[in-house]
From TrEMBL:
It holds the Pfam family Response_reg. This is Proteobacterial dedicated sortase system response regulator. Residues 133-229 bind DNA. SUPFAM superfamilies: C-terminal effector domain of the bipartite response regulators, CheY-like. It comes from the Bacteria.
Length: 229
């Protein structure tokens, strides 16, 4: 059974192009030009994954509102922001509202498809039994690479796909410095140093929200980042 993707995008050309491209990959795509039509459809049936632009037909932040609405309907529905707005403020807002990923429209189609596949893989594996070989344990940190879950002192830490693999790259070899290039390779993305720094800051903040004494991610200036057990 094909996965159902909802694309919420107010630009007709972009909407049609990506609908066609995703259909060719075997996905069932339903596209909506605005928040009202999307919410009306989702009230009857949620998609398997939602791809949302931020600005939607007269609503400069309509995508943010839709993301919050969707997250209230489902805690596990994969949500991707796909937007031309490439700045830290919007990225942070989007991820704080519960999106799993934040991508800009200048990325390649294969890159987008890889991120969609990663989110579907995580969703499908959430209910499968935990396998010991999938667990990474380092002190109070426990990561399950199959289910993409993280806990610290027994408390769940909610990370996006990108944040998960960045943290995994650092914690897998505790005490060793991981360069920014290695973090990009591990999380399968190509971004500038500023964006990587922003991701690391958000990861730290999520741990500190649970544990105010958290200080296990060390910045090694000029080299990269290191996990201290």
């Amino acid at each position: 059974m094909s996965k159902r993707i909802a694309l919420i995008e107010d630009d007709a050309a972009i909407r049609e192009n990506y609908t066609a491209a995703l259909n060719k990959q075997g996905y069932e795509v339903k596209a909506y030009p605005n928040r009202a039509l999307a919410e009306q459809a989702f009230a009857n049936r949620l998609p398997d994954l939602a791809i949302i632009d931020i600005g939607l037909q007269g609503e400069i932040d309509g995508g943010f509102a839709l993301c919050q609405w969707l997250r209230n309907q489902s805690k596990t529905l994969p949500i991707i922001f796909f937007t031309a707005r490439d700045n830290d403020y919007d990225t942070i807002c989007g991820l704080r509202m519960g999106a799993d990923d934040y991508l800009t429209k200048d990325i390649s189609l294969p890159h987008l498809l890889a991120r969609i596949a990663a989110l579907f893989r995580r969703t499908e594996l959430l209910n499968q039994p935990i396998q010991q070989q999938d667990l990474l344990e380092c002190g109070q940190l426990v990561m399950d690479s199959n289910r993409m879950t993280v806990s610290w002192h027994g408390q769940a830490i909610e990370l996006t796909v990108t944040e998960f693999w960045m943290l995994h790259a650092i914690a897998k070899y505790a005490g060793h410095v991981k360069s920014r290039q290695q973090l990009m390779d591990e999380s399968r993305m190509v971004v500038d140093d500023t964006t990587i720094t922003s991701h690391i800051k958000r990861i730290r903040k999520k741990f500190i929200h649970t544990d105010s004494q958290f200080d296990c991610i060390e910045t090694v200036y000029g080299m990269g980042y290191r996990w201290k057990c």
